[in-house]
Design goal:
The complex is a heterodimer of chains A (595) and B (399).
Chain A lengths: L1 E7 L4 H11 L7 E8 L2 E7 L17 E7 L14 E2 L5 E9 L2 H10 L12 H9 L4 H9 L4 E9 L5 E6 L4 E5 L2 E5 L11 E4 L5 E4 L4 E5 L2 E3 L4 E2 L15 H20 L3 H8 L9 E5 L1 H18 L3 E5 H4 L10 E6 L5 H12 L3 E6 L5 H5 L2 E4 L12 H15 L6 H24 L3 H8 L4 E6 L4 H15 L2 E6 L17 E4 L6 H13 L4 E6 L3 H6 L2 E5 L7 H19 L18
Parallel strand pairs in A: 16-17, 16-18, 18-19, 19-20, 21-22, 21-23, 23-24, 24-25
Antiparallel strand pairs in A: 1-4, 1-10, 2-3, 2-4, 5-6, 6-7, 7-8, 8-12, 9-10, 9-11, 11-15, 12-13, 13-14
Chain B lengths: L3 E6 L19 E2 L2 E2 H11 L4 E6 L3 H8 L8 E6 L6 H7 L8 E5 L3 E2 L1 H8 L5 E7 L9 E3 L2 E4 L17 E10 L4 H4 L5 H10 L5 E4 L4 E2 L7 H9 L5 E2 L2 E2 L4 E3 L2 E3 L4 E2 L4 E3 L2 E3 L4 E2 L4 E8 L4 E2 L4 E7 L4 E2 L4 E3 L2 E2 L4 E2 L4 E2 L2 E7 L2 E7 L1 E3 L4 E2 L4 E2 L3 E3 L4 E2 L4 E2 L2 E2 L4 E2 L1
Parallel strand pairs in B: 1-4, 1-6, 4-5, 8-12, 14-17, 15-18, 16-19, 17-20, 18-21, 19-22, 20-22, 21-23, 22-24, 23-25, 24-26, 24-27, 25-28, 26-29, 27-32, 28-33, 32-35, 33-36, 34-37, 35-38, 36-39
Antiparallel strand pairs in B: 2-3, 6-11, 7-13, 8-11, 9-10, 30-31
Helix pairs in contact in B: 1-4
The chains are: A alpha/beta (595), B alpha/beta (399).
Amino acid sequence: MCGIVAYIGFQPAAPIIYKCLGKLEYRGYDSCGIAISNRDNITVEKDTKRVAALQFNTLPLDGKIGLGHTRWATCGEPSRANAHPHVDCLHKIAVVHNGNIENFEELRKALVGEGHIFTSETDTEVLPHLIEKYYEGELGQAVTRAIKDIRGSFAIAVICAGEEKVVLAKQKSPLVIGLIDKEYIAASDIAALLDYTDRVMYLEEGDVCNITTVGIELYRNGVLTELTEERIAWKPADTRLGGFSHYMMKEINEQPRVITETLAAFEGVSEKLIGLLDPPENRRTSLLMVGCGTSYHSALVGKYIFEELIGRPVNVELASELNYRANVIADKVALAISQSGETADTLQAVRRIKATGCKMVCITNVEGSQLSRLADLSIYTKAGPEISVASTKTFIAQVALLYAICISHANIDEILKKDLERGLGQIPILIRQFLNEQSNIETLGRYLATFNNVLFVARGINYPVALEGALKLKETSYIHGEGYAAGELKHGPFALLDSNTPAIAIVAHDRTYEAMLTNIREIKTRKAPVIAVVEEGDKEVADLVDIVIEVPHTDPFFSPMLNVVALQLLAYYTALERGCPIDFPRNLAKTVTVE
Amino acid sequence: MPKRAVILAAGGGSRGRPFTATKPKSMIFIAGKPMIQHVIEALEENGIRDIIIVVGYRKERLCDFIGSGGSMGVSVNYVVQPRQLGSADALSCASKNLDDPFLVLPGNKFLRADTLAPILNATSPSVLVKTVSDPPRSSIITTKNNRLESGIPLERRTTATFREKGNFTVDTRVYSLDRNIFPFLEEASSIISALDSMMQKGLGVNIVETSGEWSDLIYPWDVLPVNGAVLKHLQPRTAGKIGSDVYLQGNVNVGDGTVIAPHCVISGPVIIGPGCKIGPQVSLKGPLSIGTNTVIETFTYISNSVIGSDVQISPGGIIEDSVIDDGTYIGARFTSVSGEADIHVGSEHYQQKIGCMIGEGCRLGSGIIAKPGSIIGNFCRAEDLKVISGEIPDKSMVV
């Protein structure tokens, strides 16, 4: 799981690749490297550093063709030798690769037997040697031949000393080409291209592409094919910090606007959606939702929304689990959620579900992503690029869409529908109010930073929020946070409670309120400090617990969207106090493009 | 010619309440854009794309919206003014980042590209001025032979009545400056008083007059004339879905995904943001700005107003000369008819022809009448059938 970049044009390649790599660090940042082709030489600079720390001034500045890579180690530990780009024995061919080569062990044995010398533990290194083996004077043909031997997923970019071209190939991993006048940049994601162009071309499965400064030759299924150019709507500025100290804080503050814009954009597709999501004959059968990580949590909120409002049973599955289930049981239509639309597990699950004849609806943040192209209907969160590895604004946008989808359902009573629309419409301003007025979360973060374990408990529709709160704390502050349904505490986790394990209780004024109060009393009896997220003015809970975080009053049905903001801020300030790299936590990557 | 501009947008703006209680004044939305974006666009049109914004009060909201400026074709960097100590202090916060000459602009005044044109070629230091017939005292300066005579505002020089009638030269708060200003900023409260001390040290301060549009936004009712001025330049555009028998007259700009139900009458200039639902049978009369995701239900009449985003107006509303901020819900048969009103702001009082001004996130019941000049704070609630007048503080409950 990595980010790749390739450049060919008339400018020095190294600084452009260096800048693009910075935008791809969300895909991994264990190590990085750049290779520059300068007539008959290829120069490689790579290290186990973040992109910003990579020294690229040793690279030849007159090289106008090059490759870049930022790595999230999957095969071989993060080390200088294992960093990309990888080269062949003669140092003439350089390759960067995103994906996973399943049969690399056997290929490697065969190549070693033929006398090739390997210098790393990676799967990728078989590529330059294979290409070297098949090279007969033209790089494109050698790559086409080499990838026939490979099983697995890959997006690769290859350069060869003495040839003024970049060759790309794609199988199951994302790759997009940015078109500039007589210049081309290929990258794993459009985020890397935004500063340079809005004209892009997406590669499809099995495509091989030769790029020279004259133009692009695209081979689709071995046939030379006309390329189709697309325009992207994202603006370059969206991926800079713009006055905030961290992307996470910036993105938390964007949430009110993101909800408003997501809901405004949603209206257009609602009618088509009702027919797809809920044809009359299968109202009582369960609707399958799949996602990973934070998207899984938003699907869980979706379960409560759909079941409460339209009485449709929902089955939420982790994509990674579904993929190894003997049978996929899906109804006529299923829903997949992924921020990037490139999450490998989710894509695999969608392919499996579709194979059963089921239609797919997806919620994603990236137009043109693999997920949106696989799905029968795509609904977009208008969150803009999310840089922070810990998701905030896309979670809330996904949840807002799930509410909107459900509320737009035809079978809801008109008066109730009005009430719900009004309630949802007020959420952005209530979050703004909360962001403006909350005053004690920074202090609470400093307090929480002193513990090693934190329990998050809630019931009902806020239970997924407890899970999300725990995940945020883990990701950003490296504190072990655990989300639990409050009723489950006495079936085990109670054994963990003591004065060194604070509990964070999320209390909504719905039918779970009394039961939550009982749970809080039980926790207090075990001497555990309790922080409660409550609606403003709730005296009863305030008297019971140690500290409260007050959120503005709203219909408890919508409370997850306010409560989650409180937990996001709490995780942020805790991580800040502990000095963690908030936007780029260790061992993680934003988009998980490997299984 | 200056290549870099500093926009001062740190101030709190207590006189702009309720709209400035939750955001900086420069983030008040007019015609779908915050005030500061109109300023940025004016700079961009003049080829000034390197912009520093001094932020302070409620800076998150501004930084979130403007970001790095790329979507407006400019590059924005931020400087934080830790405490709101006036424009001189704000400018000195940015002093490290400035090369000669540079432009200084306010984030909360309405101006256009041609307003700025005369000062771009002026020798620094210079002040852009405009002749106005009834300006607030605090912005009147005196000049002689195109030089500043006294930068001390009239407010502190005379005991004249609160608004002067006649032709007065007003400091537009737009300056072309160089590094020589910095030593004078320390002792001064505002940039114009720093220029005044420069002048007293014998350094000339040039005066450049503009004939372009410029208007001030100080009080909440100032939103309406600024809205009128901005919408004069509205480009018509129809997106979304426009139902049958909808009558559009004048310049009407409808955002993506907005649905206008049948039998609505819209006479421009009216701008409606994306994702709104209007009608059926709604009558909208310009100048009128409506934000994003706003719902205006049947039999409602709105004229000369600014309606924010995520606002919901129930059936049968009559709204004239009013400002309704984001996320407010208004029950059925709401009435806010325009009339002459005496409005008290602190110790001052003003006479205005105005409807009402409502802050963010309010929930008003059905059958409410807001009397002319009423100011309803943020997050207020009102029960059904109330008559509201005067100023209601933030988070009040009208029972």
